Request: fold
Amino acid sequence: MSSTLATSSSKPADRYDRFSPTDRPADNRSPAQRDRDRILFTSAFRRLAGVTQVFAADEGHVFHNRLTHSLEVAQVGRRLAEKLYKEQQDFCNKSGGVDPDVVEAACMAHDLGHPPFGHIAEMTLDELARHGSDHAAGTDPVGDLADGFEGNPQSFRIVTKLAFRSDQTHGLNLTRATLNAVLKYPWMRGTVGKKYRKWGAYQSEEDEFKFARALNSTGDERQSLEASIMDWADDITYSVHDLEDFYRARLIPIHILVSDKNERQRFYIAAAKRLQAQEGMTSADFEQHEKTFDPFLDSVPLSESYKGTQDQRSALRTFTAGLIARYVKSTKLVNESDDIRLEISPGFKREVKMLKNLTWHYVIDNPSLATQQYGQRRVIKDLFKIYREVAADEKHWHVLPANSREQVETIFNLPDHDRALTRIVVDLIASMTERHAIDMHHRLTGVSLGSALDLIGRY
Reply:
């Protein structure tokens, strides 16, 4: 489908403007198709093959990683956008644009900032960026960053600043439409509540953020329509494929939840506590989730522990494919006072939320994973401390990879360079694969020195 199909006649050029006017000449591709290809060919995208979804690929099962997840989100997001344009072309045009290529590009970019080891590293890097490695000792370190670290603003930072394609521009120089679609949380970091936990851009990318949000009215903090499609595609893919992965690994006993009311109730009690603590969900609201999920579980065609037989594999594939198709088919656009928004069935939203909580209850809160995460947190903290000390001492800059060393050399004599050094170190650690982070930790702490001929420092 052409990228020009669903754009508004009032501002077509604005949607596809790029932050930097200096760009390669146009070719046979549409602007959004070029965005998609630029993301596909970055090392930041390839890195996702070495970053966990929940468990690493070397755990012995064929789990999704962040790369396979992103590709599947892109496929679902594109099909959603194509469906909406085919069925509701007038609403798409009225909204200002529903471009399948924009949605696909945003889906591919949405996890680029995901650090090694997932959520535990995200929280650790945020603490370190805001307070430094000596925070626990009660010191007041220099170089703290008020807006810390989170995967979503890091993704935005990668496509606007860090990903390299030309010395003529910063980042990938994506179109305004694609940048806006990447913004799952279209605001800067706040001081309390959801805006403190989740946000879309750091202060260092404020200009690029404003450029992207110029498509929205001043003060409007809602997602763009294309970002909403990306967000829903992410939720669908994440929830369904985690269920598939962890049923196969015998970690989510979906077959027991189907038949054992006591086990189902134990899950509901744990999920209610978690949702109340994390989201402030009321008992009455959770009852609606329970009432939605009961018939869902009753319909699951999986009656025994996974053994890998052909019949089981076929039933599982048919079930998960059917779930995705159901969530996609039910999604539509609605016009609310000349405002076109994505409408998702409340029942399906509740189903997806409960599917996510299956992963939390049976996998993420598992003590065996908790002990592993303790070690992962230690790796991140040690790397931060070492690299931050190295960055502050010119005698040890050779320890840094070439790209980071060049950045340090550029800013070292500037005023307030301490904060810039902290951001460089955070960028460096967040850009690693999990294997790379572990290998560098072993090397820098003396656990396993490796060989002087290793290429490990040249990434």
Summary: The chain has three domains: 12-225, 238-368, 373-458. The radius of gyration is 23 Å. The beta strands are 332-335, 340-343. The chain has a mean pLDDT of 89.
